[in-house]
Amino acid sequence: MSKSLQAIRGMNDILPEQTPLWRYFEGTVARLLDNYGYKQIRMPIVEFTELFKRSIGEVTDIVEKEMYTFEDRNGDSLTLRPEGTAACVRAVLEHGITGGGQVQKLWYIGPMFRHERPQKGRYRQFHQIGLEVFNLDGPDIDAELIIMTWRLWGELGIRDAVKLELNSLGTSESRGRYREALVEYLSAHHDKLDEDSQRRLKTNPLRVLDTKNADTQAVLVDAPKMADYLDDESRAHFEGLKARLDAVGIPYVLNPKLVRGLDYYSKTVFEWVTDKLGAQGTVCAGGRYDGLVEQMGGKPTTGVGFAMGIERLVLMLETLEQIPEEISRQVDVYLCAFGEQAELAGLALAERVRDQLPNLRLQVNAGAGSFKSQFKKADKSGALYALILGDDEMAQQVVGFKPLRGQGEQQSIAWDALAAHLATCVVQG
Ligand code: ATP
Ligand code: MG
Predict the structure, then answer these.
(1) DSSP assignment, residue 4?
(2) Does the CB atom of residue 122 touch ligand 1 within 6 A?
(3) What is the CATH code for 330-428?
(4) CB of 116 shorter than 6 A to ligand 1
(5) Domain ranges in the chain?
(6) Cα separation of the two ends of the chain
(7) pTM
(8) Which ligand has the shortest distance to the CA of 123?
(9) Cα–Cα distance between 196 and 215 in angstroms, integer?
(10) Ligand index nearest the alpha carbon of residue 309
């Protein structure tokens, strides 16, 4: 196929054989979030470019080199959203739903776009489930976010394969003092830093802590630590968070180098990481951003949130073989009908059954076909039972009921009794 008719590099189709696992994952998260009292919000996937520059920060990887930015027909600069927080903050401000200290516990799901180098677990269109809480400033809500994800890992069967890393970045004042100390130290070792870090030292020095370069990492061993610069309030907040995680029994590692890529974080930052996915090991990341709303022109409003990468979590479920058996079967019953009269009767019968069992996954054969070919399709569909309507069944107003997986003889069931019979043998999802 010519290149222009192929999907864009790093932007993937999610094929029908993959969607059951995606839907299982998304459904599990959605149910959990509902149960903890979070409400869904849906934002556009395109926003004014300025929004992301203002909120994410001009000197971040995302804004410097990863955004899909274009001019629309009016000459406005627009950007495909690289993350969800900026748009979510814009939306709550625009609609005034965080005014007067109103608490909002919100979540969203959808595609994000970043022009990165595509590789396993890293794509140019990827999908996140994200969550933001406004106007709750205590460590209790930071803890709730982490506890909720911990429960999610448990439900998905991947808890043993993820590790929680925690840090506190303090308030912007204490972070400012720390930044000064770090810049002073790193400047004294300027020649030993890699080129990228030398550049970051001028633009966004905390990001040097994030370096993958071994020489720079060696320099960082003796660098000043954020923990020594934390103000009392942030320290108490962080202790409060740790106490709550301890109370619930959630293990964590303190990682003083965890700074996160975006400018807007303060106090709590955390990442859930795994060693099962190679280099792309962070599956969920977040933190507190108490200054962001004000920075975007709103009244002071605290915020805390996280985002998880759906591709990476789906990959983990596959890698760890944590795929529930039921999700691969999408048909309960397959109805085969032979001849025109049987086909008409089958159609009506199927609708009667669906009236009574709205959750039954009943597939009616389409495209007619011989006994053999319809039976083959029934089997291939994964259905547990085939229903058979031929001349004999039509004459007696019954339907043949044949188990397709394992034991059991074919029986005849009266049309009127079919729904009741199916209700007893198919567990409805
Ligand atoms: P990374 O360090 O892996 O680039 P990040 O810090 O840029 O991640 P965030 O902006 O915090 O990531 O996004 C939250 C989550 O979204 C990440 O932890 C990851 O699971 C997922 N994610 C981020 N970028 C990508 C991408 N390009 N492809 C797939 N998933 C991604
Ligand atoms: Mg990134």
Answers:
(1) G
(2) yes
(3) 3.40.50.800
(4) yes
(5) 19-171+231-319, 330-428
(6) 40
(7) 0.93
(8) 1
(9) 12
(10) 1
Atom of ligand 1 nearest to the CA of 130: 14
Ligand 1 within 6 A of CB of 123: yes
- What would the pLDDT profile of 407-429 be if each residue is shown by its tens digit? 789 999 999 999 999 999 886 54
Ligand index nearest the alpha carbon of residue 114: 1
| Phi, psi dihedrals of residue 45, rounded to the nearest 5° | -90, -5
**Which contacts of 281-287 are long-range, i.e. CB under 8 A and separated by 24 or more positions?**
282/309, 282/312, 283/162, 283/308, 283/309, 283/312, 283/313, 283/316, 284/149, 284/308, 284/309, 284/313, 285/260, 286/131, 286/145, 287/169, 287/260
pLDDT at 32 over 60: yes
Burial class (CB in 10 A: 0-12, 13-18, 19+), 143: buried
**Looking at the domain 19-171+231-319, which fold is it?**
BirA Bifunctional Protein; domain 2 (3.30.930)
CA 115 / ligand 2 centre spacing (Å): 10
Question: Could you give the angle at the alpha carbon of 7 between the alpha carbons of 17 and 308, nearest 5°?
Answer: 60
> Has residue 263 got a pLDDT over 80?
no
